[in-house]
Amino acid sequence: MMMMMIVVIMVILLTKRMNGVAKELVGWPPVKYRRWNDERRNAKCVKVKMEGVGIGRKVNLSLHHCYESLLHALKGLFPYHFNVGVNGFDEHIVTYEDGEGDWLLIGDVPWEVFLQSVKSIKILGRSAA
């Protein structure tokens, strides 16, 4: 069914071009797709790995405005692996790799500097740190 629709659209476009009328197809590309594509261009996604978890995740840093928001999102990415304490990370240390390849603790630098330099995030157990 979808293939048939694509063929019909192609025939219509070719017919219009053959008649000397090269009009654009109205409503294409869909607005939602264009909006989604623009949001993707502005995204700052980094990989997140947690010690003891085989599958990594990605987090979009442009959706967060501070460290607390980011840490809350990280807890949501790995919901079954955290023993929640007072601050939510009593048994884990959250680190990040900066542009020079150094591993630093999250919260050591201002948020804006962190956004510019972060390449990946790693969550370690206290025993590993």
Describe the structure.
- By secondary structure, the chain is an alpha+beta fold.
- The protein starts with a helix and ends with a strand.
- The chain is built from four helices and five strands; from the N terminus they run ααββαββαβ.
- It has helices at residues 2-18, 31-41, 67-77, 111-117, and strands at residues 45-50, 57-60, 92-97, 103-105, 120-125.
- It has two domains: 2-40, no CATH class; 44-125, Phosphatidylinositol 3-kinase Catalytic Subunit, Chain A, domain 1 (Ubiquitin-like (UB roll), Roll).
- A five-stranded mixed beta sheet has the order 2-1-5-3-4, with helices on one face.
- Aux/IAA proteins are short-lived transcriptional factors that function as repressors of early auxin response genes at low auxin concentrations.
- Residues 1-22 form the signal peptide.
- Residues 43-128 form the PB1 domain.
- It holds the Pfam family AUX_IAA.
- It is found in: Nucleus.
Task: Describe the secondary-structure layout.
Elements: H1 2-18, H2 31-41, E1 45-50, E2 57-60, H3 67-77, E3 92-97, E4 103-105, H4 111-117, E5 120-125
Parallel strand pairs: 1-5
Antiparallel strand pairs: 1-2, 3-4, 3-5
- Which strands sit side by side, in order, in the main sheet? 2-1-5-3-4
State the helicity in percent bands: 25-40%
Taking Cα atoms only, what radius of gyration do you get, to the nearest Å? 23 Å
SSE topology string: HHEEHEEHE
What is the CATH superfamily label of the largest domain?
Phosphatidylinositol 3-kinase Catalytic Subunit, Chain A, domain 1
Number of helices: 4
The CATH topology of the largest domain turns out to be Ubiquitin-like (UB roll)
Shape by Cα distribution: elongated
Structural class: alpha+beta
Total E-strand runs: 5
* Head-to-tail CA distance between termini: 56 Å
Strand content: 15-25%
Q: Indicate how many domains the architecture comprises.
A: 2
Low-confidence stretches: none
Report on the biggest sheet.
5 strands, mixed
By CATH, the architecture of the largest domain is named Roll
On the 0-100 scale, what is the average pLDDT? 75
CATH class identity of the largest domain: Alpha Beta
Protein name: Auxin-responsive protein
Pfam families: AUX_IAA
GO biological process, one term: auxin-activated signaling pathway
Subunit structure: Homodimers and heterodimers.
